[in-house]
Recover the amino acids of this structure.
């Protein structure tokens, strides 16, 4: 399937080598609009959407879990303080003052995983700062949380 190859290559580029196979197993369903891939589903659950403006992968709940399992810490992770964890799990923004650790290779606009001190997945979202800036800064937003996973 040509779509699987493209999706896996994009995931390997955006997240890390090998993530494509974990995120897009055999049997995915692709939803297209105007000839372009817009959503990817697996076993009746959405894995991700493909952002029309730049082709980036935007993770849904199931997709974020698969990426979390496929990546070794600290890759693409932002660790928040235990005080902030319940709020982030509800989908609230991550502020720099609550960041305990972050992958130094994170770049702004990259899809990131927000975890607690025990590496439990709390949310996924878009990085607003580099990983190093998230640690160094004490004011401002660090991650725009797209979806929190606290309702599980």
């Amino acid at each position: 399937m040509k779509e699987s190859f493209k999706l896996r290559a994009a995931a390997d580029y955006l997240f890390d080598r090998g993530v494509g196979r974990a995120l897009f197993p055999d049997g995915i369903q692709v939803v297209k609009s105007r000839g372009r891939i817009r959503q990817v589903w697996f076993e009746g659950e959405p894995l991700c959407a493909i952002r029309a403006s730049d082709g980036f992968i935007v993770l849904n709940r199931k997709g974020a879990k698969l990426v979390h399992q496929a990546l070794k810490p600290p890759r693409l992770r932002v660790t928040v303080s235990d005080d902030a964890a319940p709020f982030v799990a509800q989908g609230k923004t991550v502020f720099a003052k609550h960041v305990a650790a972050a992958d130094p290779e994170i770049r702004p606009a990259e899809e990131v995983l927000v975890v607690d001190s025990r590496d439990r997945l709390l949310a996924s979202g878009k990085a607003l700062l580099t990983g190093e800036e998230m640690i160094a800064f004490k004011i401002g937003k660090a991650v725009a949380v797209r979806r929190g996973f606290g309702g599980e």
